[in-house]
């Protein structure tokens, strides 16, 4: 028996059906709540499912939306604006995935990879909701991040009553969600453990897949091998989770699997998305490169009606999540209510361009014709469209020594910049950084951040790139100019003292550098501990620091043309340094 009662949200009255039990095909029951209007009219339903706990999502009714860097921002309140969903004439169904919250069953591994497929549970849930008297049989889904990923898993199962989905901020390539360029990202720790501005998973019955498939003896050997990584051994949380994985099972699995392969690919939403044939709207904001990348990758493989909407900086929406609802309700008005509002007559791709603050529309990504062109690293920390002419014996390398963060609070950063642009210069697409470097250890990180710096010094992050040096191998068949592809299936230690070419992939971006602005690139092996961009992210949204002292030499001479390769639109033109301009004038 469920508890049907009425609650107030401002001036609005909402009927709530609490703790509905939804049977899965294997007999496990999932718990959901249903919010809707007071009358008995059947309505289309928007379903929000995650492992974060449905009771946490109910705070959307009582907590004003928070933006970073508010300490009250909780990254897991992501199911949407309940009151508005009801006001727009939908049933808002919010529930707990198996093994979490008030649901039964067990969840094995991240996204239940190794257990019952989450898409299978979502299929059964969708069909159950469609059969309820308070639903008219038309179903969509709602929610960002984890909730967005669940939408893709659900749609890949093709439940008959799921008519469309609206995905914002989901994480799609599972390896890329947890390791950027092979460098471990701490954000999944926050989501799973409940740290750094996230409540985390509502654990009830979750298990590590690694602990399920390996004997204790074999697992101990694997743990000892992982602790041989100086980066891991230098970070207290990782030592703790490897020694005491109980209640950190999902984070344990991520730490134990630093290479891509079957572990991550088994339930990779990008692979599953090839089975989706319903309409899909993909929305993501700039400033979170890996999720922008994932949305574009997903857009490329979808075969049905689809939209790609890349919004403006900053990267983190409010919590509770309320943004993008206007777009979402237009989408569902068309696909769930049958109202011809013209949305499908509009271009498939919409991209907000930072700097010019214009929105570009097109039928494809990128929305304009582009040409990848180089900006070379030059002496005196300059960037130029002209390569260096001096050899290595004269254009000596730049360098920096980075001590481990166990003994210093200072992150060393090499900076290069263009002269001020003389005319608007537009970049749209992915890019690359080719770095010829020598290190005195067998591994390090390369972290590159590209900024738009205004004349007064104010700046905004445009894109980032990451590469663990031991992951430098390229898949030559899949690599193109400005779009390198690293398989990340093995680690190859670096020979200390040898100059290697490292090619970093720069995440997709869209920006116009206005006259007087500079393009500034920063290179380091750890992320700066705090800056204007990091303050907009949750505290745990940084990467595992290098745990050994490393000296880096960055060569940028005629033999070693270290450079950025950037996606200039046809109208854009890279800036040159004054030095190069003087040379050409005197030639």
UniProtKB/TrEMBL annotation:
<protein>
    <submittedName>
        <fullName>CocE/NonD family hydrolase</fullName>
    </submittedName>
</protein>
<dbReference type="InterPro" id="IPR005674">
    <property type="entry name" value="CocE/Ser_esterase"/>
</dbReference>
<dbReference type="InterPro" id="IPR050585">
    <property type="entry name" value="Xaa-Pro_dipeptidyl-ppase/CocE"/>
</dbReference>
<dbReference type="InterPro" id="IPR000383">
    <property type="entry name" value="Xaa-Pro-like_dom"/>
</dbReference>
<dbReference type="Pfam" id="PF02129">
    <property type="entry name" value="Peptidase_S15"/>
</dbReference>
<dbReference type="InterPro" id="IPR029058">
    <property type="entry name" value="AB_hydrolase_fold"/>
</dbReference>
<dbReference type="InterPro" id="IPR008979">
    <property type="entry name" value="Galactose-bd-like_sf"/>
</dbReference>
<dbReference type="Pfam" id="PF08530">
    <property type="entry name" value="PepX_C"/>
</dbReference>
<dbReference type="GO" id="GO:0008239">
    <property type="term" value="F:dipeptidyl-peptidase activity"/>
</dbReference>
<dbReference type="InterPro" id="IPR013736">
    <property type="entry name" value="Xaa-Pro_dipept_C"/>
</dbReference>
<keyword id="KW-0378">Hydrolase</keyword>
<feature type="domain" description="Xaa-Pro dipeptidyl-peptidase C-terminal">
    <location>
        <begin position="329"/>
        <end position="565"/>
    </location>
</feature>
